[in-house]
Amino acid sequence: GTLMAMLVEHRRVDLDAPVARYLPAFRGTPVEGTLTVRHLMNHTSGMQGHWGDEDNDFEELAAGYSPEMLIGETYQYNGTAFALAGKVIEAVSGETVPAFIKRHLLDPLDCCDTDVVGTSWDGLSTPLDLARIGQLLLNKGAYGDFRFFEYEAYQAILPRPLDQVIPGTWRKYGLGTVFFTEEGLGEGTFGQGAASSTIFRVDPENDLVIVVTRWQEGDGYREHKEKLFQTI
């Protein structure tokens, strides 16, 4: 989401533009509805599963499936749409996703202990590196001497009601972000989790970033997580 906000800031990507604008493989495909970049980022594309990063021709494969997609009709958490969003990033930047992340985000933040290969998984990091990214978001797009994006692009990252797309749903989702309501956190706290149970929270109300990295949930995770937030 942070990467996409940077491209939105520089007018390289329009979140509500058809994916076909950036990926020619989707032009002329017989599909009901218009698949947009925002659909990819908020899990309403109709795609399923967690694959695609490993396929150089993934956009062609995905375009072949597009007639079967229920675009904007359901919420389906998946990594496949993020892989396709990664292809959009590569198309407009001329760089691979790992190279783009390193050059435009990790290096400016001095995140020396982070390695990202995939778009929705296969990343390794440390609490300090993730905290720097969290501070960037807490600062609404700025960190140190760098300005990554302005307020409008920051707003695009934040969760928003999906009932604008799917009538009647209670879900809220942004560019890879959701709201969190653990005890003691301020209203509007946002972030994301991980299959490893890593914790990443940005709490603007309390001017706070909370990060815990881990390999897996482990015994007693939920109990200790509750105590962690009570302590904070």
From TrEMBL:
Transmembrane segments: none annotated. Gene3D superfamilies: DD-peptidase/beta-lactamase superfamily (3.40.710.10). Residues 2-212 form the Beta-lactamase-related domain. InterPro entries: Beta-lactam-related, Beta-lactam/transpept-like, Diverse_Enzym_Activities. This is Beta-lactamase-related domain-containing protein. It comes from marine metagenome.
